[in-house]
Write a structure and sequence with these properties.
single chain, alpha/beta, Rossmann fold, 8-stranded mixed beta sheet, 5-stranded antiparallel beta sheet, 35% helix, disordered N terminus, disordered C terminus
Amino acid sequence: MNLSRQAGWRRTLAVAAAAAVAASAVPDVALAGPATPGRTGNWRDVVVTGVSADAAAHAVTAAGGQVLVSLPVTNGVAARLPGEAELGPQWVVAPQRAAKVAGETAPSATAPTSTIRQTLGLASKGVEGRGVTVAVIDTGVADVPDLAGKIADRVDLTGTGAGDGFGHGTFMAGLIAGSGAASGGAYRGVAPGADIVDVKVADAGGHTDLVTVLRGVQWVSDHSSEVDVVSLSLSSGSPLPYQIDPLNQALRGLWQRGIMVVVPTGNDGPNAGTVSAPGNDPVLLSVGGLDEGGTATHSDDVVGTWSGRGPTWQGVSKPDLVAPGGHVVSLRSPGSVVDKTYPQARVGSDYMRGSGTSMATAITSGIVAAALAENSKLRPDVIKDLFVGTTYAAPGLSRTEGGGSGGLDAATILAKAGRWKSSQASKQNAADAAAVGRDATNWAAFEKAMVDGNPDAAAAQWKKLSKASQDWAARAWASLDPAARAWADADWAARAWAGAGTEWTARAWAARAWAARAWADADWSARAWADVDWAARAWAARAWAARAWADSDWAARAWASDSWNARSWAWLPSS
């Protein structure tokens, strides 16, 4: 094993491990080795965030690095840093990483067809979403009849030109705003009155990465007057806590500017702990996928086995809700990778079937557009409160089954959108969004002190966090779903730091067997997990447990661009 890589991963994972309670980390040592994404010779591609984009650019330049693109929405820049250069503890240095679309399966012709509008309680010929614009950050959108006159704007951040060579973004746009013209209205989107902004961040091979996606989010931020909703059906394997992950931070920035953001939980279910970033963010509206079995009744609805579910490794309960995502029909992008690879998924000449939390995310985004058409004054935190507060229950959609608050109830949402008021929960959600954004730099400095084994410095940094950020701890742990509460009762649980409100310091948990020193000194094999007091017992059943972390070369396979191409976007045949 490359020693510099081992040192880098020890440092990075020590940060991530300590962050499971502190909810903060900063991997400020580069990943090493040519197979690691973001590494080019003696340079490493990173995203640097802190107090502002200008300040981040200055720090990168001072360290001998190159600024690649400014990303004010993250308070940072995409950059290339030399060798093992480190920035100060006030900077979050995130490695470049791949992202993937959260589509799961393309079923066979015999699979039941989703009845989306019927399941959601929408009229067959409605024109929901009129006057609202949804940005689809995806693989591009093809010019097809059902989207004629629907594309309000386009931007290509891949350099490959307009269109959808992969076939995913077109499918999402159809679920949101497709007219159903080619099917006599049978496969109409959930907000056919809405407009689409096509933000293309992946090429015809389905390849994208953190920086390209962030450029897409930045474009939306720069054109915020043109966009009401962002539908981001992407997920990535981030090692960072949501507070300081650049993608999470950027999306929360849109949220604070009044743009509603809908994201998937990912398709790594059915085990607990399988939610991918940015679906792990407690501020954003995170959607899992349900399969309604081809009927419009709710009693037979179940959470898709592929749907990611919480709690997250930081103890956040996800998803917020579930929406139709199994065997749904939407637009085909003729000649695309998905179209040619899975011809059995075609429905007529204009449509195809697919499953996944991508689909659930797009459908939910469309209903957000419909709600905004009913009441344009709704803010993101109120919209989330409305959606979570109006879900329907079903035996197969319980929280323990990964259903979050329940199934998306579009009819009830639209009936109540005009008079829904901010609840205490929605106000708190808005406060959390602001707090974690303002405190990102302090979180980074706090975690750096912990990993360096300096509890006094960590305690001092803790005091610099806002009261809202400190209070997040008790609230987060108090609202966990059952699986989280089960392992929250261990020695390192809320008692250590929430038992006295938020008056704990680094010393309260630094002595725990799993703290920074224990993780930093581990050799990151399966044995290391077993040696840690809570590891094997608490996490053995998690999809990302020992087998995912044990192999020192997992990064190359998990994040390299060839590991999440058409195959791992998982439009695989199913019966």
